[in-house]
Amino acid sequence: MPSDEIDLATMAEILMRSSDYRVLRRLAARTEFTPSEGQATKTGILLDVETTGLNTAQDEIIELAMVKFDYLPDDSIARITDVFSSFNEPQNPIPAEITELTGIADEMVVGHRIEPEAVSAFVSDAVIIVAHNANFDRKFVERYWPVFERKPWACSATEIEWRKHGFDGSRLGYLLAGVGLFHQAHRAIDDCRALVEILSFNMPNLNRSAFAVLLERARRKTIRIWAEQSPFELKDALKKRGYRWSDGSDGRPRSWYVDVDEAHQDAEIAFLRKTIYLRDADPRQQILSAMNRFSIRL
């Protein structure tokens, strides 16, 4: 190893011993994380897409990246076993702002098509699909490849309370910095590799991987409760309680809604009746699980 690299490594180690400095290291791709030692494993996939825009019903995928990995009975990540990365030529030109954000230009995707058979074969043995914004990614990929409708999903951005665990936020860059790394953002495969590193990280004070925390949350059933026809003047009360707004453009009700654990279902209904409707209303409810949560089918 060159002397200048030794000096840099030594300086980094010295700085890390002081509480006055934080050292970030460039993410280096690796495949091995936790030795399996003969244990049975399951297969998961980390997925990311780059698209021509944010409209999940109309915009198009221009890049799909997937990282396949094995994980152990304690839900720790063992190893990366395969990688899939491909461009897709859209019907319309890529907007300039998307090229600026992703680095993907029209000439890079010309003639490229993501074969449905290749996607289906790659994900066939996966028992969980993870995306860092599953509410976005799942809706897009289900439009293109129905195989994703038949898989359970987890969202690493929303199904882990990152701030509660000492991170500055749920953005990928914040999480990478929290585990002492940085990377080249906004290319799909690089973001997938970054997410592997984050999910393999043992959460402070838990002695469990972030992936284990994610799966625990994703496996729960939740109830989506819709506060339809709620008075406009009470919108702040709903927002304060965690309700989000659906504008109805994707076929869902035009209404405020909230997702709660089954144990909190009765309390939420009681809140709506007492504070919002002032009567014994029966709001619309949907049961969500990893099989349909974030799906375009909702």
Features:
298 residues, alpha/beta, Nucleotidyltransferase, domain 5, 2 domains, five-stranded mixed beta sheet, four-stranded antiparallel beta sheet, 11 strands, 22% strand, globular
Provide a compact summary of the structure.
This protein has helices at residues 3-16, 96-102, 106-109, 116-123, 134-144, 172-178, 188-200, 210-218, 235-240, 265-277; strands at 25-26, 42-51, 61-71, 77-87, 128-131, 153-155, 181-182, 222-227, 244-247, 254-261, 285-288.
Describe this structure in words.
The chain has about 300 residues and is of the alpha/beta class. It folds into two domains: about 20-220, Nucleotidyltransferase, domain 5 (2-Layer Sandwich), CATH 3.30.420; about 220-290. Helices cover about 30% and strands about 20% of the residues. It has ten helices and eleven strands. It has helices at about 5-15, 95-100, 105-110, 115-125, 135-145, 170-180, 190-200, 210-220, 235-240, 265-275, and strands spanning about 25, 40-50, 60-70, 75-85, 130, 155, 180, 220-225, 245, 255-260, 285-290. The strands form three sheets. The chain has a five-stranded mixed β-sheet with strand order 4-3-2-5-6, with helices on both faces. Strand 3 (about 60-70) and strand 4 form a beta hairpin. The radius of gyration is 21 Å and the shape is globular. The termini are far apart. The model has no long low-confidence stretch (mean pLDDT about 95).
